[in-house]
Design a protein that fits this description.
Blueprint: E1 3-7, H1 11-23, E2 27-31, H2 34-44, E3 48-52, H3 60-69, E4 78-82, H4 87-96, E5 100-103, H5 108-122
Parallel strand pairs: 1-2, 1-3, 3-4, 4-5
Bound molecules: manganese (II) ion.
Manganese (II) ion binds next to loops.
């Protein structure tokens, strides 16, 4: 399926996200902080990134801004993961350049739907019905 990078510092959340992505047939890369996530994103060129917003040191918003400023990683869709499902936080993730937003705890239907939407947007020739006109 797709190569997906998870940047998440909480071991339980990381384990759940890995399990859900493996179950969907994806290849999973893991980073436990923003700095190693940025390095891995540049080196491995994942198809998509799941970015926890609350990370030790650099947070997920700052990391996403750097990803979107770097031509090597700007095209990779980023899904923000946050424990706070408040509207102002959602707006902050959009402002930072995140392409989608999921509130934790992760629900597999919501996660799969967000991933499928972004992957099909990134590669429209590979998914979805063809438009006749
Ligand atoms: Mn966290």
């Amino acid at each position: 399926m797709a190569k997906i990078l998870i940047v998440e510092d909480n071991p339980a959340n990381m384990k759940l996200a890995c399990l859900l992505l493996h179950s969907a047939g994806h290849e999973v890369l893991c980073a436990v902080d923003a700095e190693s996530g940025l390095t891995l994103a540049r080196a491995a060129q994942p198809a998509l990134i799941l970015m926890d917003i609350q990370l030790p040191g650099m947070d997920g918003l700052a990391a996403t801004q750097l990803l979107k400023q770097d031509p090597a990683t700007a095209a990779i869709p980023v899904i923000a993961l946050t424990a706070m499902a408040m509207k102002e936080d959602q707006e902050k993730t959009r402002a930072a350049g995140c392409d989608a937003y999921i509130a934790k705890p992760l629900r597999y239907q919501e996660l799969y739907a967000a991933i499928d939407a972004l992957l099909s947007r990134a590669a429209p020739q590979a998914a979805g019905p063809a438009h006749p006109h």
